[in-house]
Amino acid sequence: MESPPQILQEAKVEDDVLIERGIGFRLRLPYAKVGDLDVRLNGRALVKDAPDGYQTWTAEGWTQIQVHVPPGNSEATGLYFITCDYQPGETRPTGWMPPTAVREQCATDQADATPATFTDVPYGSHFRQTMDVWLSESDPPRPVVFYLHGGGWAAQDKTDIHQHLDVRGLLDAGLSVASINYRFLIDAGAANVTPPLQWPLQDAARALQFLRSKASGWNLDKRRVAACGVSAGGCASLWLAMHADMAEPAGDDPVAKESTRVLFSATMAPQTSLDPGQLMEWIPNSEYGGHAFGYPGATRPEAFAPFLAHRDDHLADFQRYSPLSQASADDPPAFLFYPRQDKPPVKGEPQTDPTHSAVLGLMLQERLESLGVSCVVRYPGDGLPGESSLQQTLIQSLTSAKP
């Protein structure tokens, strides 16, 4: 969790702070082009590009508007009420929709075309502990894709699935799908949970158990469940796949009685180890993981440096929460995809994107294959026959598995 600037940490409610640079406000309009733009502050029309006016530009498919209140005006104004009138630059017959560029980036059209059977189903008491579920209408009980979104355990949400998987295609293949939200690192930090990483990982396990507890009513085959995720969600999926079963069959909680084991894992650009010592050995410009263990920093490298320096303090944590440390001979097969690898992945060489490099996959592959566990790592130029993808692997491996 990032620390606030020192000036904010030292500030008191009663402090009389002088505004030296003025105040800025940012608005975004859901069109790349607009006409007849009329921006007003407390009813006063603002002049474009004036010192006490506004500026506008287009970025990421939106029209961006920056309103500036100079220092001399800020204390006199006190209340800030901004209105913006405009004519949209395009006609959308279905009413309001995000700009085209945003729709493409976030796959909102796919999401709208494939509504979930159940939305925001709670599997815990925290507001983030929810899942969306798409049920296949096929019989008998259906295999399940259990999806964990990426974002460094600090951003994004369950709708991220539409950017990486064709949910309609999975349903048409006879698979049911669940995509979950989970508590973020910042939530764990606020509750003084150490290391904060344990909350999103524990939520992944609990959500899987909850899903299995619904198997009868939702027509799910609880024996054919694949853990799937991207980046941090991929790391959590691997942790689930490698971890010993966390079921508590002797307990009173019916959900906790369910298994956390999966048939296989299929992940995209996952982190396979959270041990900074291992990471530096394989990728010398590694920078990921400090934030997951409570080290603050405005950037990942800032958080990684003290994390690496205090590595020995976390050896027990790595045993609990790093996928590589959980690997054993009874683990299920693992399929890892690194579609943005831009050069041959070589151990000990710096990587363009050290956080999502195929070298991480090779690290896990070396460990699993030494245990006799199948591990397939795919990346551009890998030399393996044929083409494969996350989608294809999920469909082929789940539908071919015997009920």
Task: Give a short synopsis of this structure.
A hairpin with a 2-residue loop joins strand 2 (34-41) and strand 3. This protein is an alpha/beta fold.
CATH class designation of the largest domain: Alpha Beta
Which value, in Å, is the CA radius of gyration? 24 Å
Question: What would the principal axes of the Cα set say about the shape?
Answer: globular
Largest sheet: 8 strands, mixed
Report the CATH superfamily of the largest domain.
Alpha/Beta hydrolase fold, catalytic domain
Estimate the strand proportion. 15-25%
Could you give the order of strands across the largest sheet? Answer: 7-8-10-9-11-12-13-14
- End-to-end distance: 43 Å
Q: Which CATH architecture of the largest domain would you pick?
A: 3-Layer(aba) Sandwich
